[in-house]
Design a protein that fits this description.
Order of helices and strands: HEEEEEEEEEE
CATH class: Mainly Beta
Number of strands: 10
CATH superfamily: Calycin beta-barrel core domain
CATH architecture: Beta Barrel
Distance between the termini: 49 Å
Largest sheet: 10 strands, antiparallel, barrel
Structural class: mainly beta
Strand order of the largest sheet: 1-2-3-4-5-6-7-8-9-10
Length: 162
């Protein structure tokens, strides 16, 4: 039997030097289970596709990061992904990392101002406006092929159910 006094015991990681900031508390407005409905906004005159999804935002242990899981359908296509959200105190902004069901990895900046969450990346961006009671968030998604010219791509509303 190993001698436990020799350092064979597993040890926890060193204590973090991070502290909770007011920005971390802003993420509370996202925490919960949401049902998402809406439709695509085709650029080519094709018919819009219905969107039905569930979005779950929950704290990671320690309450520094949020994990967002999304599952749903756009038309007849299954979609989903996992997004990690955290606050970068040096850059003074939130950052997100999305791993989606098509194999894409996307990093975006995220801001919160006067009840509005804004995700902004190289080719995709979205603006979600929280209702006064925090139970709904209409969100417009936009797409850009070149990062300069933007067009609406989806219009959805998240409804908090829990």
């Amino acid at each position: 039997m190993p001698d436990n006094s020799s350092g064979d015991q597993p040890r926890l990681a060193d204590a973090s030097q991070h502290r909770h900031l007011p920005e971390h508390e802003l993420l509370n407005s996202l925490i919960g289970k949401w049902m998402t409905t809406g439709e695509t906004i085709p650029a080519d005159g094709a018919p819009a596709l219905k969107i039905h999804a569930s979005d779950i935002y929950e704290w990671v242990a320690g309450r520094f990061f949020v994990v967002h899981t999304a599952y749903g359908r756009i038309g007849d296509t299954d979609v989903g992904g996992i997004e990690l959200i955290g606050y970068d105190p040096e850059a003074k902004r939130f950052r997100t990392h999305l791993f989606d069901s098509q194999g894409n990895i996307t990093t975006q900046n995220l801001t919160f101002n006067d009840g509005t969450w804004t995700w902004s990346g190289q080719h995709a961006r979205a603006t979600g406006v929280l209702s006064n009671d925090g139970q709904a968030m209409p969100t417009l998604h936009e797409w850009s092929d070149d990062g300069v010219n933007w067009r609406p791509s989806m219009n959805v509303t998240l409804h908090k159910v829990v």
